[in-house]
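Proteins fold reproducibly. Look at a concrete instance:
___
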Amino acid sequence: MLADELKEIIEPVAAALELDLWGIEASLSGKRGVVRVFVQSAAGRGEPDTAATIDQCAELSRKIGLVLDVEDIIPGAYTLEVSSPGMERHFFSLDQLKPYLNRTVEAETTETVALEFPDRKRFRGTLKAVRDTEVELIVDSERITIPWNKIKKARLRPTYPDQVNRAKGSPSKGSKSAASEKQGKK
C-alpha cells in the first residue's frame, strides 16, 4: 500500500529533523495527485497541539521531495504538502486520540454504528474514552461506542470561547449584557 511505503520513507527523514510523523494522506486520482504529510514537533511528544514551525515544514518538504524523486514510488505528477496537523487535526490512529479526552471530536463512520442514532454516520461529541479497539463519545447527551475499524475519518473540533459563552447563555465577547448597558447610561 502506498501510504505504508510513504511512511517507511518519510518517518526517518522527519525524525532526523526532530519531527514526529502525525499522518499521511495520498490522493493520486486525476491529472495531478496530492501527497499531504502532517508532522508535529518531537520536543512535545505525547502532548497535544505541539506544532511544527513553518521553517521545519519547509525543510522537511525539500528533503522528502528529494527522497521521493529518487525512490520514484509515486506514479505521475503530484503535489507534496507538508504541514502541522493544525487545530482541526485528523486522527490517523487510535493512540493519537488519547491526549484529547474531554475535547470535541467529529467521527464519520463507514456504516451505522449506534442504535441510538439509526441511519446516522456522522457524530460530533465529547471524547470520553479511548480503548484498545474503540472510542466512546457523548453525542446529544447519549453515550455511544464506536469501533475504530468502523471510523472512516476522525478529527478534532476545537471549541472557541464565544461558542462556550453562547452555549452557557452568556453574552459572547463584544456583546453587551443588560447590566452593562444600564451602567453605561448613568
In short: Residues 109 and 157 are 16 Å apart (CA to CA). The mean pLDDT is 86. Helices lie at 2-16, 54-71, 161-168, 178-184. The radius of gyration is 21 Å.
